[in-house]
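ARCHIVE CARD
Drawer: 12
Card no.: 0347
Subject: one protein chain, sequence and derived structure
Cross-reference: see card 0346
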Amino acid sequence: MRRVALCVVIAVSLCPPAIAGKPSGGGGSTAPNPQIAYEVLSGKSNKLVVSDENGTNASTLFSSALAFHFDLAPRSQHQIAIVDSSSALRLLTYGVTGTGAFATTANVVLDTGAYAPRRNSNVDFSPDGTKLAYACNSNGVDSEHLCVYDLTAQSASEWGTDSFYWDLAWFRGGGAIAYSTEDADGVTRLHEIDGAGATPQVIFETRSDLYLDASRTNANALVLDYHDTAGNALIGLWQDGNFIDPDLAHSSVGFFGETNCRDDELAYLGPPNTSPDWYIRSLTSGLSTTFSKTYLHWVQFWPTCS
């Protein structure tokens, strides 16, 4: 994805005032650094980079010729999960150098046994950092499974079966997994499943790609990328059948939204459509800054502040 020295353009623009119904929390600027992780293509290498929110103190923790998806464990755990196009589930462990920079100390391919990840499946840490959810055993056509790897037991298990797992996230404090599917009737459905073999419940429907992530301060809320009835690409905060706020980004286009550890900042992919930029929006002041005009993938904040 990108080189160690991040080329960032910072451009502050006035946006609408603070968002009604946002989760409560303090200022994100006091969170320990680095605060952002992202994947960037640099030459023929996909790189996992961490940096401060303004792009300084960038360090590369992982590099691969293969594209990959990743997720950050709770900050104190110092681990990152990666699934790439070889169907490997990796666990990176990193330390902090004497200068305060992050550096990889271990890179292990987990033994998933009969539950190998789908190529480039999304992956998500449980809130306590002990489990990983991902899509596995795909036939590449119309069937795959939802799997969970237990880092304590060092083994994987199957939770359910569906046609295709578009995206997934733990929520309800780790008591359930939410996941989206694109079904044959053209409807994208958001499901909730609360254990291995449990019956999934449909909790939201839309006619578009549906990406999701958990709120950091509200165990029952999800950050959803969806299209409204007019076809607008929005990022909303959703809970139990209703949007607390249907438009967190207040942007003409918004994709891949994720909030920081206090739910008071939003990272998202926004306009222009021809060459999307990544933005960070304060959900307190309503100000947005351009994080990068280099095309990045999967920008994430750490899910916990400490």
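Annotation on reverse: DSSP finds no helices and 25 strands in the chain. The longest strand covers residues 89-96.
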